[in-house]
Design a protein that fits this description.
Blueprint lengths: L1 H80 L45 H8 L3 H12 L5 H17 L3 H17 L7 H14 L3 H9 L6 H18 L12 H14 L12 H12 L20 H25 L10 H19 L11 H5 L3 H7 L23 H12 L54 H38 L15 H23 L6 H17 L3 H14 L8 H35 L18 H25 L9 H9 L5 H11 L5
Helix pairs in contact: 1-15, 1-16, 2-3, 3-4, 4-5, 4-6, 5-6, 6-7, 6-8, 7-8, 9-10, 16-17, 16-18, 17-18, 18-19, 19-20, 20-21
Length: 728
């Protein structure tokens, strides 16, 4: 009795240690999940703050959009009044005009009158675009032509619309975008024969864009592609091609032979301007600079003839100092702006993107026009020209934030000028720190891929960086992982659900194991007389294993579904099969447990799913499963032999595995073990005595086989004599 008490004490101590270890593990997992929850909470708060900022920007943008709608209503009313105006008063905007006024937006270029204007008119559906272009409202015209190109158009109308869009972009100094649009039209013409008549106009437009970018070789090739079918364009292209040849071979143009001293000084000023990162080419000096330099030169007086005995005459003004100060001040401003740009995280002007260079050039040209053009005399500029005079830096110095935008009833009232949206103003500081995202906010080309009659693209814009950015690739290295895919939030939620189910499997298996140990302790503690008076604590261990198996199956199905999306979740699948095998082994389903442990080895080939302790546990349980399978095979063979010997007269034991209840697991296992032992003994006796027939064992023999109760020798002899077998 003392021995049994000490054994029970040891079992209780061992069970207490296991429970303490389990509780410690659960506490560690609790701390881990608490840390994960805190990190998720912090990320959620950060994301909420970003969302609030974006909402503020959206509110400001909505206000600006309302202002735009009011302005559009006024412009529509004015356009309805002016619809009856003759079309001859509108400049050609079909891509063949190469004459830009000094007051045009984005350039101060002046061209000679020899570049005659072609009177070909675009399609009638682009009448409103022509109207806005004639008013130099290029932003509205560009939006209108983009809207038309997105709709259904005939191939001829689409080509004319692309030429019109290229011309508008060229007037806005978006030369690379204009080249990309020309390439789109060139591809469409090459695919459809009925559009070959538009090839000269497209080639001429491409050549002129290349010429403005000072890409003389490409411009000469484009002008050379203009065929002689169109006499006007061919003559203009030939003249421009000769002009490109003169500049390529370094020949001195004829008009430079008669330059005066003042004009030579202007050439020096033009050379200073060419050192800045501007892409537009000045075909002739700006008018404003000519008048300014001549005014300065008039202050200089030539010295009179020297009279003997007198001092030589001196100029009233020092011409060198008069010209030194403005140049020195200009150089200092350029150096200071470059230092500021580098200090704020920007790029070197020579390393900027093309659209950034075009924007800076437009601002610089507009400043020159403001000093010498109609803007200096008080004439208001229209459309985007007046708006672009205000840079974001000057606006930011005047405005505290984008929230200062407000509306008044029925009128357009805003602190921001036209052309500078609240979204661009609020987003500019972040874009200065992250310049790689600027191209994502620019208008993309081709203008209409879905509405175009042809699909696909095999021709790219030559020398155009905008073509590669039509469908840009996002810099995945600098974007958070949970933002790289539209469905990534759902995928992460599913992965978290799988991990939660696996955590539940572990808790259930540990609980079932504790209940099994409690059952044995309870059976050792309760006396046979008091049986039934106290509830059995090990009653729910089978249910715990069953719930763990269901959770593992659900987690395995979700992990398999996620693995189809090439997420490489083999380690997660290995853990699901591990807990499925543990649950099946706990329920004594050895066949299913063996299959589950076999799949664990398949998915854990890279050793990234299970821990070393779990892998060792899998090996031990796999050996146990093989032993159980072998015993089950022997039991089945014993049943077959018993059927052969009895002729099938004995009632077969019904397999209670499918209809097992919660309280019958123990008795079923005992019966199965008894059948296995009985089959083994039958096989041994058949091999030993080589009997053709043997009657079923008596009750005493079965008691001896199962429980080890000895059978009297006299009884054994009597039984053998009845069977007709002599003892050896």
């Amino acid at each position: 009795m003392l021995v049994s008490t000490s054994d029970a004490t040891d079992d209780v101590a061992e069970a207490a240690d296991d429970l303490a270890a389990t509780v410690l593990g659960l506490k560690k997992e609790r701390d881990t999940w608490r840390a994960v929850a805190e990190s998720y909470q912090k990320a959620f708060e950060d994301q909420t703050a970003r969302l609030a900022e974006v909402q503020d920007i959206c509110f400001a943008t909505q206000m600006e959009l309302e202002n735009e709608r009011i302005a559009n209503r006024h412009s529509q009313k004015s356009s309805e009044v002016s619809q009856a105006s003759p079309h001859g008063t509108i400049d050609g905007t079909d891509g063949t005009d190469d004459k830009l006024d000094n007051s045009s937006s984005g350039t101060a270029t002046i061209y000679e009158s020899r570049h005659a204007e072609v009177t070909l008119r675009p399609n009638f559906c682009f009448r409103r675009v022509e109207y806005f272009t004639a008013r130099r409202d290029y932003d509205t015209a560009l939006r209108e032509v983009d809207h038309l190109l997105r709709g259904p158009l005939t191939p001829q109308a689409r080509i004319e619309g692309l030429l019109l869009k290229s011309t508008i972009m060229r007037r806005l100094e978006w030369l690379y975008d204009a080249l990309a649009v020309c390439s789109e039209g060139l591809e469409l013409c090459n695919r459809l024969e009925e559009l070959h008549a538009y090839l000269p106009r497209i080639q001429y437009q491409r050549g002129f864009c290349y010429y403005q970018l000072q890409m003389l070789k490409q411009a000469r090739e484009a002008f050379n592609e203009v065929c002689a079918d169109d006499d006007v364009l061919y003559a203009k292209a030939s003249e421009m091609r000769e002009f490109c040849d003169d500049q390529l071979h370094g020949r001195r143009p004829g008009f430079e032979a008669h330059r005066t001293v003042t004009e030579g000084l202007l050439a020096q000023i033009s050379d200073d301007d060419s050192q800045s990162p501007r892409t537009a080419i000045l075909l002739s000096p700006p008018r404003g600079k000519t008048s300014t330099v001549r005014k300065i030169a008039e202050k200089y007086e030539r010295p009179q003839l020297q009279i003997p005995g007198t001092e030589p005459a001196k100029p009233k003004h020092n011409l060198k100092e008069e010209y030194k100060d403005p140049w020195q001040q200009k150089n200092e401003e350029q150096l200071q702006s470059e230092r500021v740009r580098k200090g704020s995280g920007g790029l070197n002007p020579h390393l900027k993107e093309p659209w950034e260079r075009a924007r800076d050039e437009a601002f610089s040209a507009l400043r020159n026009d403001r000093d010498s053009g109609p803007g200096a005399e008080g004439t208001p500029l229209t459309g985007g020209t007046q708006a672009q005079l205000h840079t974001l830096d000057t606006l930011r110095a005047e405005l505290p934030n984008a929230a200062s935008i407000h509306l008044q009833s029925g009128t357009r009232s805003t602190f921001l000028p036209e052309g500078v949206t609240p979204f661009a103003y609020a987003l500019d500081p972040w874009l200065q720190q992250n310049p790689e995202y600027r191209h994502l906010l620019e208008p993309t080309t081709p203008s209409s891929t879905q509405a175009s009659p042809v699909h696909g693209s095999s021709v790219h814009a030559e020398g155009s960086t905008r073509t590669a950015e039509a469908f840009p690739e996002f810099p995945f290295q600098s974007i958070a992982a949970y933002l790289r895919d539209r469905n990534i939030v759902e995928i992460r939620a599913k992965i978290l659900h799988v991990k939660t189910l696996l955590f539940r499997c572990g808790v259930l298996v540990m609980t079932a194991r504790s209940l099994e140990q409690a059952e044995f302790l309870h059976s050792a503690r309760v006396s046979p007389d008091s049986e039934g008076e106290e509830e059995d604590p090990g009653k729910g261990w089978y249910k715990a294993y069953y719930e763990a198996g269901r959770a593992a199956e659900k987690a395995g199905a979700m992990a398999a579904e996620l693995s189809k999306k090439e997420l490489w979740l083999d380690g997660l699948q290995a853990r699901t099969w591990y807990w499925k095998g543990r649950a099946d082994a706990g329920m004594k389903r050895w066949d299913e447990a063996g299959k589950a442990f076999g799949k664990v080895g398949k998915y854990d080939a890279t050793k990234n799913g299970l821990t070393a302790l779990e892998r060792r546990d899998v090996e031990l349980r796999r050996e146990e499963w093989e032993m159980k399978v072998e015993l089950a095979q022997q039991g089945r063979q014993g049943d077959e032999v018993l059927d052969d010997l009895t002729g099938g007269l004995e009632d077969k034991a019904v397999d209670s595995e499918p209809v097992r209840a919660e309280g019958d697991e123990k008795s079923d296992d005992v019966k199965r073990e008894q059948r296995e032992q009985l089959g083994t003994i039958i096989n041994d006796m058949k091999a030993k005595y080589k009997m053709k027939y043997i009657r079923p064992f008596s009750l005493e023999e079965q008691e001896y086989i199962i429980n080890g109760v000895p059978v009297p020798v006299r009884k054994q002899t009597k039984d053998f004599e009845e069977r007709g077998v002599s003892r050896r």
